Amino acid sequence: MSLPLENKIAVVTGASRGIGRAVALELARRGAAVVVNYHQNAGAANEVVSAIQATGGRAITVRADVGDFAQAEALIQAALDTFGQIDILVNNAGTTRDQLLMLMKEEEWDEVLRTNLKSVFNCCKAAARPMVRRRQGRIINITSVSGIAGQAGQTNYAASKAGIIGFTRSLAKELGPRNITVNCVAPGFIMTDLTADLPEELKQKGIEATPLRRWGKPEEVAYAVAFLASDEAAFITGATLTVDGGLVMGG
Ligand code: NAP
Question: First and final CA of the chain: distance in angstroms?
Fold first, then answer.
């Protein structure tokens, strides 16, 4: 029996850990060959590739700081050189430098904006042409409920994530006529390295503010990404799908 994403090639940025790792594994489970991008953690990225290969899938690691335009271009080129095409681009790489605005250093603003938002511009710009040439493609950008609702201590992060939503809607309009969809997934509180060090009190508050009364798992975000990458999602573009246990509704 053929798998739903068989013969598809996916690039997942920041796929060595957390949500990106879960996305890479889920896309591979559905048959896609996966380019596992990472920045620092080669060991973790290699483990993701080994896990995919162990189940008969195809995957490679590519080191690239996706906040750097030339490195993002090289990442996309490596995918094309290895697999010949790109069908799915998941812009997941992200970071935080939480701080109240009055204490935030310029470097903390710049680092978050380049890693979270400029990276999306960089990778989309590099991948758009090969997708347009084939008149097909799926771009899925990982934003956050912080970019929708705002969060004290996260002016940099929330601005980068809100920026991704505006970017996504604009690119969806540009690339829709070429049969390329561009969507966002907005996770709520998900247990990963990014959130592991949050103060216990904040973690508890997160649970209380979430109608489903728990944190989400990386796999639960990956299922939403895999859906948006699937044939079933062909008529969805410019959308932001929240995967947050109901958090962003407030109330
Ligand atoms: P994580 O566990 O900290 O993992 C971050 C990943 O991004 C790692 O694979 C890391 O690679 C990679 N990365 C960081 N900077 C990079 C760069 N400049 N170039 C390439 N890769 C880079 O984070 P996560 O929680 O899985 O978050 C993934 C995405 O989901 C982020 O965009 C985040 O903002 C978003 N998100 C997360 C939550 C949550 O609660 N966890 C909620 C909403 C949105 P290395 O391993 O090599 O360092």
Answer: 46
- 159-169, pLDDT tens digit by residue? 999 999 999 99
Architecture category of domain 9-243 in CATH: 3-Layer(aba) Sandwich (3.40)
Most ligand 1 atoms within 8 A of CB, residue of 23, 92, 164 to mutate: 92
Active site residue 157: yes
Choose, from 38, 109, 121, 157, the residue flagged as catalytic: 157
H helices of the chain, in order, are 18-29, 42-54, 69-83, 106-113, 119-134, 146-149, 155-175, 193-196, 200-209, 218-228
CA–CA separation, 186 vs 45, rounded Å? Answer: 23
39 C-alpha vs ligand 1 centroid, how far in Å?
10
Query: Closest ligand 1 atom to the C-alpha of 143?
Result: 44
Written as one letter, the residue type at 6 is E
pLDDT in tens, 2-40: 999 999 999 999 999 999 999 999 999 999 999 999 999
CB 12 within 8 A of CB 62: no
Q: At what angle do helices 119-134 and 69-83 cross, to 10 degrees?
A: 30
